Amino acid sequence: MVVLLLLVNLLLLAWRGGWINTGATAPSRLEQQVRPEQLKLLGQQAASQLNKLACVELGPLETDEALRQTIAVLTRAGLTAASWQAQTTATGGTWALATIKMPSKEFQARKEETYRNARIAFEPLQGFPDEQPTLVLSRHDSEAAAEAALDAMSKRNYKGLRVLRLQSPSQQTTLRVPRLDGLQLSRLDAVANPPWGERRKSCEVAPAAGAAAAVPSASASSPAPATSASGAAGTVGGAVAPQPAASRAAARAASR
Asked: b/e string for 188-216 if b means 16 or more Cβ within 10 A?
């Protein structure tokens, strides 16, 4: 009995001191979690939103600053660079064959009368307060074409004309996000004064990559598994769980 009591006391002392692993501590698999501090439970409404997929196009964005701010908003919404596609469109400039800035109303009236008699169309220049009053005779898609028109008018002995650039050539960028879940879309909708302004429209949701190969026997009426377009988080038992490191590495490789 003395020996048995001694053993019991030693076991109790070892258990209290944490020398014996009873299985109450976290198993080693929990130590392999990626960013477990980001794990949070979702309510029923939020969990159902993960099943709603949307495709949006933001833009066209006309300045580099608007593009930078839009990318920053998408990043804060949990999207990676591999989640959107940038489509850039070049816009040509506009040049005009115009009169000089006319010094007086009398000079303008004489010019207008001359063009009317010669049946040359003209219109007042709009949007350039510092160039008023000025008449526009024609518009052209290139500076060379406007210079050619000026040369032709000069040969007909028309003076006081010039080439005026109305719009500089530029590039516009549209960001297409083909797969957004409901939570990510709500984050975009909650942005005050978004850099894309009113330029947002819906598009067709892109199919999940490899979905047909992964589930070849699934029926057309079977609901697709909830996925996150950001690639940064998935769902496990109603909770948002961080993505494994291998998937994050694949996403970084895709973005490069």
From this structure: beeeeebbbeebeeeeeeeeeeeeeeeee
Which residues lie closer than 8 Å to 153 by C-beta, 6 or more apart?
97, 137, 161
Residue with tokens 């964005």: 61
Instruction: Judge whether 181 and 226 are in contact, CB under 8 Å.
Output: yes
Return per-residue pLDDT of the chain as tens, 256 residues: 999 999 999 888 888 876 776 555 556 667 777 777 777 777 777 777 777 888 988 988 888 898 999 999 999 888 888 889 888 888 788 999 999 999 999 999 999 999 999 999 999 999 899 999 999 999 999 899 999 999 999 999 999 999 999 988 878 899 999 988 888 888 888 888 888 888 888 888 777 665 444 433 333 333 433 333 333 333 333 333 344 443 344 444 444 4
Strand 40-41, strand 135-140: pairing: unpaired
pTM: 0.43
